[in-house]
Design goal:
Layout (H helix, E strand, L loop, with lengths): L12 H15 L7 E2 L25 E9 L3 H12 L5 E4 L8 H4 L11 H4 L3 H4 L10 H14 L12 E7 L4 E6 L4 E9 L9 E2 L10 E4 L5 H4 L14 E5 L3 H13 L2 E6 L5 E2 L18 H13 L12 H10 L9 H26 L3 H7 L11 E2 L3 H4 L5 E5 L6 E2 L4 E3 L2 E2 L4 E4 L10 H5 L2 E3 L6 H4 L18 E3 L13 H21 L4 E4 L1 H13 L6 H4 L29 H14 L5 E4 L1
Parallel strand pairs: 2-3, 2-6, 4-18, 6-19, 8-17, 9-10, 9-17, 10-13, 11-12
Antiparallel strand pairs: 1-7, 4-5, 5-6, 14-15, 15-16, 20-21
Bound molecules: NADPH dihydro-nicotinamide-adenine-dinucleotide phosphate.
Length: 603
């Protein structure tokens, strides 16, 4: 086929596809997705313990509140803030963590930061009159910001930390929810907001023999600074005589590896699949950043970011980073109406190739040892794995104490001394599991970690066994007065920066419960018809995974090589990642009409 000007000369689609499939096949091995269920694993349950805040004994409590919010992360805090704005008085946040923060409470590994720019990622900046210190914020600033929101809206003094809800049950007689916790608390609540998080389940691979390892081992989401020394900004001074191994090279690993490389006597990095490491370009916020900001600037910035990632036309790219430069167009390549599908596909593939070549070239430019560089080069299409961004990760492999171990089929087994790859044992003092989290699409009832019983004892896990059934992705028939914060795979929409959908939903929760209270409603429930209609809307735009996804290297995004694993009911409004702007409009019109159509209301 004749090449046009925008198709790179070195692009040979056949050989690129062949190489990508070869690399994929090395990784598509049986058992790659097997994980340990940390809630029910006698050896690894202790990996969940909180190393950051001391546990305190306390008496069981009986209480009655207006709203119980399960989860004190971003979702819980933002929803709580908007409920306060709507005039709700008695709000109780309940969380297993020792404080506010959710993901950012638990993830304190050295180097932890957010690779979505802070001005979009940190919610409610205008409410708090806060401007982040850097373009990309470190975890402690983000956690501090969530705490500041919670303080401002008085969500902390009544919160229950280190408390796990064990059962949530609708009580028909009182028309209220009853929550029982692991402390023996009994909380009665008019409304429940489920804000349980999307990355709250640590993923520990099921590698044979892991439990026999005699050294120190922990997951990045429970970093043991007592063992390593230092803090989230590095300085891991207790590792100077230690041989450390990191398992995983995803978003968490690439942030902590430079610090481990700096401090450990020897560092082995066990890599199954290389991440695509784009430029981060972090910098302090310019002094004049806030000079020209008008009210509403943050929402405008967040929506501009989302629009670009959805391939929608914008006047200007306000964020201008790797997400907008690469993710937007590889996900939704701008299409000329005159192109056939084949022409579109050809240009998209060529563009993707260029993007990945840029990443591969970056590795070659930074990493001195050509063999190590080769292993670090990602061979798959950009959208196959969540992209990463970092400016110090690749150069960490130039440290003489760092060794990259290529193990595309994963780690064979772990002995008392350490991991074994192709018969070679790697004796270690410490294993850091940077193995991530169960997918965001893990069903809500599993992420919630406890049984939820609605009307007539209906168990949510049973009702949703074949996929979620909701209206707007946030309410379900049979579960009155309950709102479930939206997440991927739950009939709402997906936003790359989870903050955007969280803020949207948080405002919606506040407005909706405010309206219900004004109308003096005691019970609301989505009607069966309204729920069926929403499910049909979701099903009507459901698409099977594209051949591009099917050819991808296995990853969390494609359910470890099984892109059609989820039920069609798990789709988003508008199909694919979802039509964020259409969804937002639907919610706004629904609230603004004041009719709360589709809800059965009891005064
Ligand atoms: P990831 O799922 O991205 O990475 C896990 C890593 O562990 C992968 O490299 C994976 O290999 C590897 N792994 C898993 N099981 C095994 C095994 N059995 N043997 C060898 N290697 C294994 O997890 P992260 O914690 O890095 O990130 C999870 C998510 O958290 C991100 O996708 C992102 O959404 C969020 N996050 C966001 C950050 C941000 O800056 N915004 C920072 C950190 C996390 P393979 O690639 O082959 O699966």
């Amino acid at each position: 086929m004749k090449k046009t000007d925008d198709i790179p000369q070195n692009f040979d689609p056949e050989s690129v596809r062949k190489k990508y499939l070869q690399e994929r096949d090395k990784r598509l091995v049986d058992g790659r997705a097997e994980i340990r269920d940390l809630r029910n694993d006698e050896h690894f349950a202790r990996y969940r313990r909180d190393p950051f805040t001391e546990y305190q004994d306390r008496e069981a409590m009986t209480d009655s509140v207006d709203v119980a919010i399960i989860g004190g992360g971003m979702g819980g805090v933002v929803a709580g803030a908007h409920l306060r704005k709507a005039g709700i008085r008695r709000i109780r946040i309940i969380d297993e963590a020792g404080g506010i923060g959710g993901t950012w409470y638990w993830n304190r590994y050295p180097g932890v930061m957010c690779d979505v720019e802070s001005y979009s990622y940190m919610p409610m900046l205008e409410d708090l009159d806060y401007i982040p210190k850097n373009r990309y914020a470190f975890g402690d600033e983000i956690m501090g910001h969530f705490q500041a929101i919670a303080e401002k809206y008085d969500l902390v003094s009544d919160a229950m930390f280190h408390t796990r809800v064990e059962r949530t049950e609708w009580d028909e007689a009182s028309s209220r929810w009853r929550l029982s916790t692991d402390h023996g608390d009994e909380i009665s609540a008019k409304y429940v907001v489920m804000a349980v998080g999307i990355l709250n389940l640590m993923k520990m691979p099921a590698i044979p023999g892991m439990e026999t390892f005699r050294g120190k081992a922990f997951h990045t989401a429970r970093w043991d600074f007592e063992y390593t020394g230092g803090n989230i900004h590095g300085g891991l001074n207790k590792l100077s005589d230690k041989v450390v191994g990191v398992i995983g090279t995803g978003a968490s690993a690439i942030q902590c590896i430079p610090h481990l490389a700096e401090s450990a006597k020897k560092l082995f990095v066990f890599q199954r699949t290389p991440s695509a490491i784009g430029v981060r370009g972090n910098r302090p916020t310019h002094d004049d950043f806030s000079e020209d900001l008008r009210p509403g600037w943050q929402r405008e910035r967040m929506e501009n970011f989302q629009a670009i990632l959805l391939g929608l036309p914008v006047e200007t790219d306000l964020v201008k980073d790797g997400w907008t430069k690469h993710f937007g167009p590889t996900h939704r390549y701008p299409r000329d109406p005159s192109w056939t599908d084949a022409e579109y596909g050809r240009r998209l593939e060529a563009f993707d190739f260029e993007v990945m070549e840029e990443h591969r070239q970056r590795v070659a430019d930074i990493v001195h040892d050509p063999k190590t560089a080769d292993v670090l080069k990602p061979y798959y299409r950009y959208i196959c794995k969540r992209p990463c961004f970092h400016d110090e990760y690749l150069s960490a492999f130039n440290h003489p104490n760092v060794e990259l171990i290529d193990c595309p089929a994963g780690i064979e087994r772990v002995t008392a001394n350490g991991p074994v790859i192709e018969g070679r044992e790697f004796p270690l003092d410490c294993i850091v599991y940077a193995t991530g989290f169960e997918a965001e699409t893990t069903p809500f009832y599993r992420r919630a970690g406890h049984d939820i019983f609605g009307r007539d004892g209906l168990r949510l896990a049973d009702k949703w066994a074949d996929g979620p059934k909701t209206m707007f992705g946030i309410m379900s028939h049979g579960f009155p007065n309950m709102i479930i914060m939206p997440c991927p795979g739950q009939q709402a929409v997906v936003t790359v920066s989870h903050t955007l959908i969280t803020v949207e939903a948080g405002e919606h929760v506040g407005a909706m419960i405010g309206q219900l209270e004004q109308k003096e409603v005691s019970v609301f429930e989505v009607s069966e018809e309204a729920e069926t209609e929403w499910c049909e809307t979701i099903l009507s735009t459901h698409m099977k995974a594209s051949p591009i996804m099917a050819a991808c290297t296995p990853s969390r995004i494609n359910h470890e090589g099984n892109p059609n694993a989820l039920s069609p009911l798990s789709g988003a409004y508008g199909g694919g990642m979802g039509d964020f702007f259409g969804y937002k409009q639907r919610l706004a019109e629904w609230i603004d009409s004041g009719e709360l159509a589709g809800l059965l209301l009891k005064k």
